[in-house]
Amino acid sequence: MRYDKPPLSFTQQLDKLKSRGLIINDEAIAIHYLSTVSYYRLEGFWWPLQSDKLNHVFKQGSTFEQVIQIYNFDRELRLLLNDVVERIEIGLRTKIVYNLSHELGPWWFEEASNFESIQKYKVNIATIDRELKYSQEVFIKEHKKKYFLDDRRPPSWKTFEVVSMGTLSKVYACLKNSINSKDLIAKELGVANHTYLPSWLHCITLIRNICAHHSRLWNKNLPGTPKLLNKPPFLWIKAVPKSSEFHMLYIHLCCMKYLLNVLNPGNHFSQKLINLLEKYPSIDPKALGIKSNWSNEPLWSI
Q1: pLDDT tens for each residue of 175-201
Q2: DSSP string, the chain
Q3: Model confidence pTM above 0.90
């Protein structure tokens, strides 16, 4: 089957939504959102409001205002998590650079013998080279200019300032388990040892990428699965979601909050999340997997 649907004007898009049962109380506002956000992006937010998803028929009483409430909530949630991920990423980078440089030297990341998989090492070092090549940071340019006779990359404390969190996560996961710093980094982050941390970092990186690309986070099936500690050394949750619920955001929020509590004690993540949910009372926390009474959990009480 060939796709043969023609492009629609904003007015035609509005008429299509109305014909499918979506209530439009203010057509001017609806046209504004369709012309600045786009029909296709908003479609992900009105999808759950449809009673017949095959024929795109909306549930009785569904309104365009509900769609915009969900959209705005999702946007503010992503902004909140961007801030959390930034703090985790900077803390992770600092601990990786400091511990590994002191144990293995400033160029530990160039040594293939420090990694379990040669193939993954090659992929990671190629990614690092690409990120160095396109970096516009002055300190990278100045290093290359000053040390042009040194064929090594800049030392880790310079190089790892310009690599992405995804690269950080992959480099850490690929390190040989016999390297002392691999366990030490995990321990300093409150995650006991290297067995657990890579899965947490992978999940957080996926969420970071969703936020960075302005994609929908609300009501999304997340692919990552964090490996949980049986007895975390710091405050955790009592009502742990079942593994069948790990595709929902809540358990990932818990992992982020746990790391943030270690890296930034006294943070305001809990209150900001409470404020956001209170600002949008029409949003069902269950769509994110958030448990009732979640804010009273030990993890979220600080």
Answers
A1: 999 999 999 999 999 998 999 999 999
A2: ----PPP--HHHHHHHHHHTT-B-S-HHHHHHHHHHT-HHHHHHHHGGGEEETTTTEEPTT-BHHHHHHHHHHHHHHHHHHHHHHHHHHHHHHHHHHHHHHHHH-TTGGG-GGGBS-HHHHHHHHHHHHHHHHT---HHHHHHHHHTTT--SPPPHHHHTTSS-HHHHHHHHHHB-TT-HHHHHHHHHTTS-STTTHHHHHHHHHHHHHHHHTT---TT------PPPPSS-SS---SSPPPGGGTTSHHHHHHHHHHHHHHHSTT--HHHHHHHHHHH-TTS-GGGGTPPTTGGGSGGGG-
A3: yes
